[in-house]
Amino acid sequence: MNRRDFAALLLSLTPAGCDWFSDKKQPLPGERISVLGLDTTFDPDPQLASMPVTLPPPAVNAEWPEPGGNPAHSMLHPALPDRIARAWETGIGEGASRRTRVLSQPVIARGRVFAMDGGVQVSALDAGTGSRIWQVDLKPEGMRGSAFGGGPAFWNDRLYVSTGYAQVLALDPADGKVIWRQNVTAPVHSAPTVAEGRVFAVTIENELNALSTDDGRKLWSHNGIPEPAGLLGGASPAVEGEVVIPAYTSGEIFALRVENGRSVWSDSLASTRSVNAISGLADIRGRPVIDHGRVFAISHSGRMAAIDLRSGERVWEQEIASSHSPWVAGEFVFVLANDNTLVCLTRKDGKIRWVHQLRRYEDEKAKSDPIRWAGPVLGGNRLIALSSLGELVSVTPDGGQRVGGQSLSGSAFLGPVIAENALYLLTDDANLSAYR
Predict the structure, then answer these.
(1) Do the strands 341-346 and 352-357 form a parallel or antiparallel pair, or are they unpaired?
(2) Which of 333, 374, 317 is nearest to 343 (CA)?
(3) Is 324 contained in some domain?
(4) What angle do CA 41, 44, 49 make, to 5 degrees?
(5) Most buried residue, 50, 109, 210, 249, by CB count within 10 Å?
């Protein structure tokens, strides 16, 4: 198939009550539409021109067990060597096609890499060699239709997996055997977040389910406003202490009590600044981040905000649209905007320190064949982004200068992850690679 189809996200038009698991092998519904939109200009604040971008020193993280690295999605500054090269690459199953998508990053724990392919097949690989330890297909017995999406998370010696078959499962990480399996009300296209003895999974109908890690029983649920139109994929909730932060395709973001799901505060990142139906999608696709008492979140429609975790009051906001998670480190926040601009903002007040324009089109002159980027991830004193052209690019965090790049084996639509001085990435054709 033409990989340029994936230079745009799929607009998912899935009204409630439809047949989620059709047994007909048809293309995914909806039109593939570029999300780059109109040109956007981000102007650095001239008063910040001499401000040094100081970051926490790089630190070795032995694992990356959950989406976003930990329940709060705040990994600060993982260590990574200055020069990295591919150490191994292993295919884990079905890649993206006209009816499937690879939607979740791998997770790393106990010396193993766990990843899901474009269907619902989960693999465990040796992190050092890439050799396959086990592989399981989580399609429910007797199910005729096909589904995709979801992803893995590791917590307390168990692997928890959500799937597009509207299920959440607990697996034995040693052999992949199912410990428990729980149905939820609709497909899950994002990986779960696991913390405080609970598995938090958000369905495509904007329902957050809190399940017991012990046996999968449903503890409580929370519903946002149903939104039939949204981007494929989803945002895994952020958790810190007694609060869980789900973000929905409606643009709503909530702070809920982990214990019972009661609302502490709510906000909306929907923007009224949209110029068409696509740019107006309020979907929060990037994972929210909790860091030092603040929640950082961004919507596809063009609103980014820093919110006080306790009170729900906005500390600052910016008109930036993105479908990627912001990266918070020290006193700065890095985000990849929908127009492929990498932006560095101050954590305190959201002012722009610098911008770096990544390549937008294969043919820049004709503005045709848009390129999609994923990231950024901060590691080893550089920001790393991956592209649909199969390129890895490194940018300096202090000034936004490109300092390196290398070719990948295929298109990448998911950001990389870092553990034990190695970078791991999953390409769109379901090849999992390690770089050291």
Answers:
(1) antiparallel
(2) 333
(3) yes
(4) 160
(5) 249
How many CB atoms are closer than 10 A to CB 298?
32
CA distance 176 to 187: 21
Chain segment 109-147, per-residue pLDDT in tens: 999 999 999 999 999 999 999 999 999 999 999 887 789
Which domain does 389 fall in, by range? Answer: 3-13+26-435
Write out the two tokens for 67: 């989406």
Q: Looking at residue 7, what DSSP letter applies?
A: G
Query: CB of 303 within 8 A of CB of 270?
Result: yes
pTM higher than 0.90, yes or no? yes
Which distant-in-sequence residues (6+ apart) come within 8 Å of 114 by Cβ? 106, 107, 108, 122, 123, 124, 125, 152, 154, 159, 173
Q: What is the pLDDT of residues 240-293, one digit of tens each?
A: 999 999 999 999 999 999 999 999 999 999 876 654 455 557 789 999 999 999
- What are the backbone angles phi and psi of residue 363, rounded to the nearest 5°? -110, 95
The number of folded domains in the chain is: 1
CA torsion 78-84-85-90 (nearest 10°) is 0
CATH number at residue 415: 2.130.10.10
User: In this structure, is residue 19 part of a structural domain?
Assistant: no
- Residue whose tokens read 């006193």: 331
